[in-house]
Specification:
Layout: E1 9-14, H1 19-26, H2 32-35, E2 44-49, E3 52-58, H3 60-63, H4 73-82, E4 92-95, H5 110-120, H6 123-132, E5 142-144, H7 147-159, E6 163-169, E7 176-184, E8 187-195, H8 200-210, H9 219-226, H10 235-241, E9 243-244, E10 250-251, H11 261-266, H12 268-276, H13 290-318, E11 322-326, H14 333-341, E12 347-350, H15 358-365, E13 381-385, E14 398-401, H16 404-416, E15 421-424, E16 427-429, E17 438-442, H17 447-457, E18 468-471, H18 475-478, E19 493-495, E20 513-515, E21 517-519, H19 525-538, E22 542-547, H20 559-568, E23 573-576, E24 579-582, H21 587-598, H22 603-607
Helix pairs in contact: 1-5, 7-15, 8-13, 9-13, 13-14, 16-19, 16-21
Bound molecules: fe (ii) ion (FE2).
Length: 611
C-alpha cells in the first residue's frame, strides 16, 4: 500500500471455474454446442502496478482451450512474473462477478441453488485463489466486482475520454445484459440497466446455436454470414422477437419461452420459435443454407437497430456524444460501423478485449484510487514476449538470423511475391485480435489469397472474410471512414472505397466492407514498416492480417507456439523474434529477400530512416 492506503499492486481476473462442469453434470445428454451456453467464459488476468496497466493475458493462451473458463492460474503467474513480482506483493485480488448481492435470484430451483453454492458464490473464488496460489492464503480474499461495472471501466479508462457515455451490451452479467453509464472525471454513474430479458448477446448466441455453430464462440461467423443474406424475408419475425420500446429500452420476448431449467439451459423454447418463424435448425458442422443466411441477415439487422436505439436515446438525453463500448456485443464490428456512420455520435471507442477477458482489467480498475489516472498503453501488447519460450533448437526447416529492419524489408518483398507468412514479434496481444505481433500476413491483391489462407492455413469456412491492415497515412484514400470511428484495434467495419475494391479483393467482404486496422508507425512500428515496404514495391499500402493460429487453436502465445503453427500448417515462412524459418519451396526466395534487404537503400531501411 502507499502512504495514503492506495493499493500499489492490484490483480484482476475473470472466469467461473466449474461453471460448465456443473451444467453438464446436472443435464446429461446435452450436445456439445448446448453445453457451451454457460456463464463465466474467457478466463484472464490483468495487473495494475503503481497506476499502470502492465500485463494482461487470457488463460486460453496457456491451456490451449479456447475461451477457457477455468481459474486462470497460468495467466496470473505470467502477469506477476512479467512485472518481477509474486503473490506476496499483491494487495488486492478482484474478480469479474459479484453474485453475492444476487443470491436471492439464485434460489429459484434446485439447479440454480446448486450452481450458486458450487460456482457463483464469491466464497468459491477465495477458495480457488488459495488452492492455486498458496501465498495468498490467510492474507488475501477475492474482492467481487459487479460484472457490468468491470466491463464499463475496461472501456471508459483506456478510451481517454474525459466525459463519455459508456454502454455495455453482453449475454448477461449477474442479472443485466445492457447498462448505460455516464463517465466523467473518473466517476462512473449508471443511467440505465436492462436485465437478461433484453439480451442481444443471448439472442445472438441462440441464433449461433440454431445455425449449427458454437455459441459463445462463433457469433462472428453469423455476423460474417449475414453480409451475404437478405434480411427482408425474416424482418417481420425479428420485429416480433425484438421489440423496441420507449426511453431507449427494448425487450427480446423470444428469450421468455423457456419454461423449465433444462429449457433455460438449451433455449429449446426459443429455438422452436425460430423454427415456427420458418428457419429450420442446422446440423453442427454443415454449411448454412441460403434461407439460414437470410435469417442471419435479419438477426444482424435487428441487433443493429436495437443497438442504435439505446445508444441514440442516451446521446440525445445527455448531450454526450463520445461513446465507449464493451461487452461481447461490442465485438459486432458491423453494428459498431453502423453506429459510427449514423451521425448520432462524435467518437466511438471499443475496448479491444470487449468480451469477458476484458473484465479482468475492469475488475482491477475498480480498485484503482483514481481510475481516470491509470495509464493504459494504446495497443494491446500486454502478454508474453515471443522469447518467453523460444522455438525448438532442432528444426528440419531452413532458418537464419534476421535483424528487425532486415526482417521487415524481406517480409515486404516476400509478401509481394505471394508468400503467406507468420510474423511473431514482441509481446502477445490481449483480446481476440492479432494487431501485428502474432499475425499471419498475405498479399491482398488476389482473391485467391483469401481462399488459400482460409483453406490451407486457417482451415476455416470460405464465407468468412479476412481483414486488412493499412498504413494510417493511407487509410482515407482506401476506406470510407466515418469521423467517429477509431480503427487501430480492428473493431469497426467500414466500406472500402468503391474504386479500391478490385485492388484488394482478398480482404473485401461480399458487401464491399472490411474490418480494417489502421497501423500507426509509432504504435506498431514493425508492421508499419512492412506495409511501407510492400507499398514501395506494389503501390498498395494494405496487407491481409489475421491471427497466427490454426482453426480451433488460440493465437500462438510465444516463439515455440509460433513455430508449431508454422510447422503444422501450410505457412510458407515465419519470422519469430530474430530468426526466419522457411519451407523448402521458399528457401531460395527468402535468402534472396534477406540479401536484398541488407543492401543500403533497401525499402525498409529507407522507411526506418536508413538504419
Ligand atoms: Fe460480459
Amino acid at each position: 500500500m502507499t502512504a495514503t492506503g492506495t493499493p500499489r499492486v492490484v490483480l484482476g481476473y475473470s472466469g467461473l471455474d466449474g461453471s460448465q462442469e456443473c451444467k453438464t453434470r446436472e443435464f446429461p445428454g446435452l450436445s456439445t454446442p448446448e453445453s457451451r451456453l454457460f456463464q463465466g467464459l474467457d478466463s484472464a488476468a490483468a495487473l495494475l502496478v503503481d497506476g499502470n496497466l502492465v500485463a494482461a493475458v487470457q488463460q486460453e493462451r496457456f491451456s490451449g482451450s479456447k475461451f477457457d473458463h477455468r481459474f486462470p492460474r497460468d495467466a496470473i503467474d505470467y502477469c506477476l512474473r512479467s512485472a518481477g513480482l509474486d503473490m506476496a506483493d499483491v494487495q488486492v485480488v478482484a474478480h469479474n462477478f459479484d453474485y453475492g448481492r444476487m443470491a436471492a435470484f439464485s434460489q429459484a430451483d434446485a439447479y440454480s441453488r446448486l450452481r450458486y453454492s458450487s460456482v457463483y458464490d464469491p466464497a468459491n473464488q477465495t477458495r480457488l485463489l488459495h488452492a492455486n496460489h498458496p501465498a495468498a492464503a490467510g492474507r488475501l480474499e477475492v474482492r467481487p466486482v459487479n460484472h457490468h461495472r468491470a466491463h464499463a471501466l475496461s472501456a471508459a479508462v483506456p478510451s481517454g475520454f474525459g466525459e463519455a457515455l459508456v454502454v455495455v451490451l453482453d449475454g448477461m452479467g449477474e442479472l443485466h445484459a445492457v447498462t448505460v453509464h455516464h463517465w466523467k472525471d473518473g466517476e462512473l454513474r449508471r443511467l440505465a440497466a436492462l436485465d437478461f430479458r433484453s439480451s442481444l448477446g443471448l439472442l445472438y448466441g441462440l441464433t449461433t446455436l440454431h445455425l449449427g455453430f458454437w455459441p459463445n464462440s462463433d457469433e462472428y461467423k453469423v455476423m460474417a454470414l449475414a453480409a451475404s443474406g437478405d434480411p427482408a424475408r425474416f424482418r417481420p419475425a425479428l420485429r416480433d422477437a425484438v421489440v423496441l420500446e420507449a426511453d431507449g429500452r427494448f425487450s427480446v420476448p423470444l428469450l421468455g419461452m423457456n419454461h423449465d431449467p433444462r429449457a433455460r439451459e438449451t433455449f429449446s423454447g426459443s429455438r422452436q420459435r425460430l423454427v415456427d418463424y420458418g428457419c429450420p435448425a442446422q446440423e453442427p458442422g454443415r454449411p448454412p443454407t441460403p434461407l439460414q443466411t437470410d435469417f442471419a441477415a435479419a438477426v444482424q439487422e435487428r441487433v443493429e437497430e436495437a443497438f442504435l436505439h439505446v445508444v441514440g436515446h442516451w446521446v440525445r438525453q445527455t448531450g454526450v456524444a463520445r461513446v465507449a463500448l464493451a461487452g461481447g456485443v461490442a465485438l459486432n464490428c458491423v453494428a459498431v460501423g453502423r453506429l459510427c456512420a449514423s451521425g448520432l455520435v462524435e467518437e466511438v471507442y471499443v475496448q479491444p478485449a470487449a468480451g469477458d477477458e476484458g473484465t479482468a482489467v475492469g475488475a482491477a480498475l475498480a480498485f484503482a484510487a483514481d481510475p481516470a489516472a491509470v495509464r493504459c498503453p494504446p495497443m494491446t501488447f500486454l502478454g508474453p514476449d515471443v522469447d518467453e519460450t523460444p522455438p525448438p533448437s532442432a528444426t528440419p526447416y531452413w532458418h537464419a538470423p534476421a535483424a528487425p529492419v532486415v526482417a521487415e524489408g524481406a517480409a515486404a518483398a516476400l509478401l509481394a511475391e505471394g508468400c503467406v507468412l507468420g510474423w511473431a514479434q514482441g509481446r502477445l496481444e490481449f483480446g481476440p485480435r492479432a494487431l501485428g505481433n502474432r499475425s499471419i500476413l498475405a498479399d491482398p491483391r488476389e482473391r485467391g489469397t483469401r481462399d488459400r489462407v482460409n483453406a490451407a492455413v486457417k482451415f476455416r469456412e470460405g464465407f468468412r472474410p479476412l481483414a486488412p491492415a493499412v498504413k494510417s497515412e493511407s487509410l482515407h484514400a482506401w476506406f470510407d471512414v466515418p469521423a467517429a470511428a477509431q480503427l487501430r484495434h480492428m473493431t469497426v467495419t467500414v466500406p472500402v472505397r468503391p474504386e479500391c475494391r478490385d485492388l484488394i479483393p482478398a480482404v473485401v467482404h461480399d458487401d464491399g466492407s472490411a474490418r480494417v486496422q489502421s497501423v500507426h508507425a509509432d504504435e506498431v512500428p514493425g508492421l508499419w514498416r512492412i506495409l511501407d515496404g510492400f507499398e514501395r514495391l506494389t503501390g498498395v499500402p494494405v496487407l491481409m492480417n489475421t491471427s497466427l493460429n490454426v482453426k480451433g487453436q488460440p493465437t500462438a502465445r510465444d516463439g515455440a507456439e509460433a513455430y508449431a503453427t508454422f510447422s503444422s500448417s501450410q505457412l510458407d515462412v515465419v519470422f519469430i523474434g530474430g530468426t526466419v524459418y522457411a519451407k523448402p519451396a521458399w528457401e531460395q526466395r527468402v535468402k534472396d529477400a534477406l540479401a536484398a534487404a541488407e543492401r543500403p537503400g533497401a525499402p525498409a531501411r529507407e522507411a526506418a530512416g536508413g538504419r
